[in-house]
Amino acid sequence: MVLSFLLVPVGWVELFPFSRFPMFSAAPRSLVVTRAYDSHGTEIPLAMLGIEVVSLANDEPLLNVVPQRPLDSAYRFWEPNEFAPQIQTRIVSGGVLPPIRFAQELIGPIDLEGRATVGVVNFRAWLVWGDTVELQSP
Amino acid sequence: MKSSTFGQLSLWALLAAGLFYALQATLEPRAILHPFSITALLPGSWWQNPTLFLVLKTVSIAAILCWALHLYTPVSALLASGGLLLLLSNSIAGQIYARHQPYVPAVLLAIYAIWGVSRRAQIKSAPTLWRFGKAAHYPKWVYNLSLLYLTSTYSFAGLSKVIASGAGWVNGVSLQLWCWSGSQSLVPIRAICLYDRWIALGAQTLVLLTELTCVFCFFIHRLRRAYGLALIGFHLSVEVLFGFHFYGNIIAVGLFLMMYPSWIRADKSAH
């Protein structure tokens, strides 16, 4: 039985209690931080809107018995056609009064006073109400 | 430390970790599921049943406490280990991505449960709870299997990184990004990693090399404490940066990598 815990992950199966421990195995060079705000400017937890923050490490399990990652990953820039109807439906079901403002920051490598670090390299904001989705900044 | 004392101490420590994760386990029904646990392959009406989950949680916690007090062994050991595996499996089945914090203590407790069943006569002969450490025999295979599993998990983690991203995993940028998106507090370790890419790159190199080569600790005794220190430091950093509670791993590393040399040398009778 114990040997199975060592051998099964070799077969690249990711099913508890068997695992190949893929945490942080991706090596992203940029990521998008997404935040949502209600009409009063108060930040709303993304989970409240049904938006899943998918781990970069293991968002593609090998055994694809059920559907893949959610459409609305918060780790990349969204496109306008992705909002309708998924996001709007979830805003309503989340009980949040529109308009909702989504702010997305693209984080990537920057040079800060000669130091190689990371910071905001691009930004997008979306205003969503009713059937309307408005991109507020390029 | 004598092997039998180590056996008792490690059992209690692992049970404490198991109790922590059992108490934390929640049923998370989701519309979109990833099959990250065995029970997720069963019909949702089975594993998503709140009553069944509550029963599993209650049985697991009660059995863990009974096992810690050496009551009703080996039944309590089997119920604690099996119940915890099922409980965690049901909890993980609803998660949008696998959280690996409870994996190691759950599997180590399964190994200890086998010990509890196979040596039930000896363990039952322990006259009292407090004298158990002196009376009960701690077989070397329990220690070796636990150590092999523990060190393998880290090597699997290192291998996963290399296979997923190649040598490019060590790029410094990804660690800086994780630090950026993790805890927003200005903890020193976050500030240090974000200060310059070379520091992040060095930290990533150290993590990858430690993980990849961890399984060598199973064969080379002298490596164990150094790796133990490195891994505990790694887990504490992950705790501070991302809030991932790998307490079970910290306990296991502390037990099987840090405490090994003194007890195994002192107790030849363990063989």
The ordered string of helix (H) and strand (E) elements of chain A is HEEHHEEE
Largest sheet of chain B: none
Largest sheet of chain A: 5 strands, antiparallel
**Which band does the percent of strand residues of chain A land in?**
25-35%
Terminal Cα separation of chain B, in Å?
Answer: 15 Å
End-to-end Cα distance of chain A, whole Å, is 56 Å
Which regions of chain B contain 5 or more consecutive residues with pLDDT less than 50?
267-271
Structural shape of chain B:
globular
Helix content of chain A: 10-25%
Secondary structure layout plus pairing:
The complex is a heterodimer of chains A (about 140) and B (about 270).
Chain A: H1 2-7, E1 31-37, E2 43-44, H2 80-83, H3 86-93, E3 100-112, E4 115-129, E5 132-135
Antiparallel strand pairs in A: 1-2, 1-3, 3-4, 4-5
Chain B: H1 3-24, H2 44-47, H3 50-68, H4 75-93, H5 103-118, H6 120-124, H7 132-135, H8 140-165, H9 173-181, H10 188-195, H11 197-213, H12 224-242, H13 247-258, H14 260-266
Helix pairs in contact in B: 1-3, 1-5, 1-13, 3-4, 4-5, 5-8, 8-11, 8-13, 9-10, 10-11, 12-13
Please outline what is shown here.
Chain A has helices spanning 2-7, 80-83, 86-93; strands at 31-37, 43-44, 100-112, 115-129, 132-135. With 138 residues, chain A is an alpha+beta fold.
Provide structural commentary:
- The complex is a heterodimer of chains A (138) and B (271).
- Chain A is an alpha+beta fold and 138 residues long.
- Chain A contains 3 helices and 5 strands.
- Chain A has helices at 2-7, 80-83, 86-93, and strands spanning 31-37, 43-44, 100-112, 115-129, 132-135.
- Chain A is flat, with a radius of gyration of 19 Å.
- By secondary structure, chain B is mainly α.
- Helix content of chain B is 69%, strand content 0%.
- Chain B is built from 14 helices and no strands.
- Chain B has helices at residues 3-24, 44-47, 50-68, 75-93, 103-118, 120-124, 132-135, 140-165, 173-181, 188-195, 197-213, 224-242, 247-258, 260-266.
- In chain B, helix 1 (3-24) packs antiparallel against helix 3.
- Classes of the chains: A alpha+beta (138), B mainly alpha (271).
- At the A-B interface, helix 1, strand 3 and strand 4 of A face helix 4, helix 5, helix 8 and helix 9 of B.
